[in-house]
Design goal:
The chain is mainly α. Helices cover about 65% and strands about 5% of the residues. It has 44 helices and seven strands. α9 links the parallel β3 and β4. α7 packs across α8. The chain is globular. It starts with 7 loop residues before the first helix and ends in a 5-residue tail after the last helix.
Length: about 950
């Protein structure tokens, strides 16, 4: 069976649906939210064209009967190809030859005219050779793509890759493909030949195991390309012959149309197929006319049409047969249905009757009668109907769509129809923008369908001077929708396009700011700074110096606040120069003053004595301004200052205040990374404060943040860490599996901030005595090492190493790992883990019986006062040193109350006596080894 295009995660959900699990049970199994399960189920219903969950379950059961090849990660089990609506007929020799061609050159282009069957042949061959490719066969249809830069995005979507923070979509695809053995099928490349060629050339250069099968009306003109000509289907000589593949196709389609073929018909059918040059689409159109015309009528009418076409201005020898059949089919339609066929050619994808009514329902067509005309076109095989969960949708094959577009131009209806399509798509986009819940089951599906229509409409309107204003509004709309869809990279690009179409510099500055916010959300710091500076320049030209000062301040703020988002560590003098320039423009505007004060607060180290005052001043100004985003940025500076001072509870309160503050803010690009950063900082602050329950609550929310939908490894990283600390080790490993899948699918990106989560999972495996798994995760840990500042996370690393060594009863080795004294751990990032580190620093000294153990306890107290887990661990160490069993049990109760199950169980083991067995039992239930 040919598979629908499903992602690895959707495949797992489908299996679970087949087992009749509820959404809640699926969410628990796969460690994702119920809302995410709902979204996947909705997507599967749409992709497989079934109407309800019962049908989906039956489908899953049927699929489960097929043998599944052995595999590694889930991403290596899928061969996602579209499911054809009709059977594939004939072409046995071409099928074998094309399959053989894919064993040699790594780029094979099936070249032939429209309607000749390139797509069907490529899909059949791709299914035939799928077993050759360990990492699957992936199909991307380029018909809806209007811009070459989006080729990589379509391929990424086919693979199941979303936009990744800190890298372009093309880089994400290249990284994913680097070590894969896969076949990419790129269908309908002709209108993007240059863009496809550039993409394929880089793809194959960096992916030695990759093969590309392209279909196009013309070759891609790459030196290593193997061209495979696709011609019409075979028609045997002689009127009384069997006729070959072409007549087999004709007879099969005629029977499906309700006209059984008799022996007397066959000679006429052979002549018809020969006159159509064996072109499959032309044959299918002819067969659809058989019930009304009969073989004789069809043959006679087609002969007349071919004679009329001889010497036609638009028809060459390769296309004449298809063109003749299209022209004749068109001529047999009534005037209204002809107009509908022409006008629906502007749709980039499948459309509903009400959509067609808005675009094509003008004289001579009555909007209320559109459904009747669409049904007639489907009956004549000029449109393909598909029944989906939201009703029947229609689409035109590419050759038919291009034919209709030509007729639009000929009849002078092109501008009116295109304008109506543009207006309809923008109205639908504005309606979609009013829906607050972008995670609703239907929202993303609605955008995915509408997005191609908007892109197509804007590609037509943007170059036209008389449509410049409406194109500007359309680009802004598409950018906003892309951002809400979790596509900040495309959102940035669309906002920049809008800036280029803006009516004046003031509007251009607005769009450039939005583009900068989208870049920040993608953690593309260099791009964000460039765009902030461009916005400032536009604002100055528009006579808005205060706004320019705010833009420059935000650029300086980002350089100091998020240096990890830059490709290279920013130079301090560059940020200082930006700040100095900003000061020259900021005077009375409160928001600008708040942004400037925040940038100045971030410019000084959080350990500086003046840092608290700077953060307080920025926060006061931001609150006075009433700007929530400015207040969020100021609160972030305050959070880091509080963390550096060891005030974890205050930091947590500040971070949670940010979340509350941002919850009512619309999900728009100007928010940048504020919402996701607020959640991440809340998890980190909760860890610093030892509030594991709050850390878990927020970490679970991180998974459902809109900008984390497509980056599963980022979404679960904090939950991996929290689950490792609170003792939910099964949950930690389940989250780790999702992390690994997402990280590998994203091309193993180097994201240093994820190292702690990876080491946490490695430590869990170590605590369970799973040495091989621990080593595998440490390999991932090493792959995430930053190119700059490789020691930036040395203290969290020391904590996890010591945790494992103490569990194994090796306090002496733990002491050699914990070399830093508490007062040497500076800066907010290191301070998050300082209480946890200090607690083990004391425990190792007590268990190793070193002389300064008592002194360490005294030195530790100021650093653990705000963290109940760390305080309980130090109390336990003190009790162990004093031989106070009751004190150890008291620490166990405190750890239990704090939600730290592993340390609670370990305390019972350390207490000995009757409680030891209870602790041993609890540890074994967690999978831990007991020393």
């Amino acid at each position: 069976m040919v598979e629908a295009s499903v992602s690895a995660r959707e495949a797992e959900v489908l299996v679970a649906v087949g087992e009749h699990l509820t959404n809640a049970e699926i969410a628990a199994r796969l460690f994702i939210s119920i809302r995410t399960v709902e979204s996947h189920v909705s997507s599967l219903l749409r992709k497989f064209g079934v109407s309800d969950r019962r049908a989906l379950s039956l489908l899953a059961t049927e699929r489960s009967r097929d043998p599944v090849p052995p595999s590694g990660p889930a991403s290596r089990r899928i061969t996602p190809l579209p499911s054809p609506l009709t059977s594939f007929v004939g072409r046995k020799s071409e099928r074998a030859e094309l399959a053989a061609a894919l064993r040699g050159p790594r780029l094979v282009t099936a070249v032939g005219p429209g309607g000749v069957g390139k797509t069907r042949l490529a899909l059949a061959v791709a299914a035939d050779v799928s077993e050759r490719f360990a990492d699957g066969v992936w199909y991307a249809d380029l018909v809806p793509v209007t811009d070459s830069p989006l080729v990589a995005a379509v391929v990424a979507g086919a693979i199941g890759l979303g936009e990744q923070q800190g890298r372009s979509v093309q880089d994400t695809v290249l990284a994913w493909a680097a070590d894969r053995q896969a076949l990419f099928v790129l269908d309908n490349c002709e209108h993007l030949a240059d863009g496809v060629a550039l993409f394929v050339e880089e793809l194959l250069a960096r992916s030695p195991g990759l093969v590309v099968l392209a279909t196009s009306r013309a070759r891609l003109l790459l030196p290593f390309e193997r061209v495979f000509p696709v011609v019409g289907m075979s028609v045997h000589a002689g009127d009384d012959a069997e006729g070959g593949d072409a007549t087999t196709l004709f007879e099969e389609r005629a029977t499906a149309a309700g006209f059984p073929i008799t022996a007397a018909d066959r000679s006429g059918i052979v002549r018809i197929c020969r006159s159509l040059d064996g072109v499959p689409l032309a044959i299918e159109l002819a067969a659809a006319r058989l019930p009304s015309l009969g073989v004789d009528g069809l043959e006679a009418g087609l002969a007349d049409r071919l004679q009329l076409l001889t010497g036609g201005r638009r028809v060459d020898s390769r296309h004449s047969s298809l063109r003749s059949m299209l022209d004749w089919s068109y001529a047999l339609l009534d005037e209204q249905t002809q107009a509908v066929l022409r006008r629906v050619a502007v749709f980039a994808g499948a459309f509903r009757a009400e959509d067609a009514a808005a675009v094509a329902g003008w004289p001579p067509v009555a909007a209320r009668e559109i459904g009747v005309h669409l049904a007639a076109l489907a009956d004549h095989s000029l449109l393909v109907p598909t029944t989906l969960t939201d009703g029947t949708r229609y689409r035109a094959l590419e050759a038919v769509r291009q034919y209709g577009a030509e007729l639009l131009d000929d009849t002078g209806e092109l501008v009116e129809t295109r304008t109506r399509h543009l207006r309809w798509s923008q109205d639908a986009g504005r309606a979609l923008l009013t829906v607050a819940d972008v995670d609703s089951v239907g929202w993303r599906t609605s955008f995915d369908r509408l997005g191609d229509e908007l892109r197509s409409a804007l590609a037509w309107s943007a170059p036209r001077p008389d449509h410049r204003r409406v194109a500007y509004e359309g680009k802004r709309l598409l950018a906003a929708l892309c951002y809400r869809r979790g596509l900040p990279g495309e959102s940035q690009w669309r906002y920049e396009q809008a800036a280029g179409l803006a009516p004046d510099d003031r509007h251009a500055a607005v769009e450039l700011r939005m583009a900068a916010g989208a870049a920040e959300a993608q953690l593309a710091g260099d791009e964000a700074v460039r765009l902030r500076r461009a916005a400032a320049a536009a604002a100055l030209r528009a006579g808005e110096p205060e706004r320019a000062g705010r833009d420059l301040a935000q650029a300086a703020e980002l350089m100091n606040r998020g240096p990890g988002t830059m490709t290279r560590p920013p130079q301090p003098d560059v940020a200082r120069a930006l700040l100095e320039e900003a000061r020259g423009y900021v005077f009375g505007d409160l928001v600008s003053q708040a942004r400037l004060a925040t940038a100045e607060a971030f410019a000084m180290p959080e350990t500086d004595a003046q840092a608290p005052g700077g953060a307080d001043r920025a926060l006061e100004l931001a609150r006075s301004s009433g700007d929530r985003l400015a207040e969020s940025a100021a609160l972030d500076r305050l959070t880091t200052v509080q963390l550096a001072r060891g005030d974890g509870r205050a930091a947590l309160a500040s971070a949670l205040r940010r979340i509350d503050l941002l919850t009512p803010v619309a999900l728009d690009a100007d928010a940048g990374f504020e919402l996701s950063d607020a959640h991440i900082m809340a998890v980190e602050s909760a860890i610093a404060a030892g509030d594991l329950r709050e850390a878990r609550r927020v970490a679970e929310r991180v998974q459902d943040l809109p900008l984390h939908r497509e980056v599963g490894h980022v979404a679960v990283a904090r939950l991996m860490t929290v689950s490792s600390l609170d003792g939910d080790w099964d949950g930690a490993l389940a989250a780790g599996a999702r992390f690994r899948e997402g990280w590998e699918r994203a091309g193993r990106p180097r994201v240093p901030t994820l190292r702690r989560a990876v080491e946490a999972v490695a430590t869990v495996h170590g605590l369970r005595g799973e040495a091989d798994e621990c080593a595998a995760w440490m390999e991932i840990f090493n792959a995430l090492e930053p190119r700059e500042r490789p020691e930036h996370d040395k203290n969290p690393r020391a904590f996890f190493n010591a945790l494992l060594l103490l569990h194994l009863g090796q306090p002496d080795r733990a002491l050699h790992v914990l070399t830093a004294s508490p007062d040497e751990i500076q800066g907010w990032y290191q301070a998050i883990w300082r209480p946890w580190y200090v607690a083990l620093w004391v425990e190792a000294a007590v268990l190793a019986d070193v002389p300064d153990a008592a002194e360490r306890m005294l030195r530790a107290r100021p650093f653990i006062a705000d963290n109940p887990v760390a305080a309980a661990l130090v109390d336990r160490a003190a009790a162990l040193g004093a031989g106070d069993r009751d004190g150890v049990l008291a620490a166990a109760r405190a750890l239990d109350a704090a939600g730290c199950r592993y340390q609670w169980a370990r305390s019972l083991v350390l207490a000995g006596g009757a409680d030891r067995e209870r602790g041993v039992s609890a540890l074994r239930a967690m999978g831990a080894t007991v020393v």
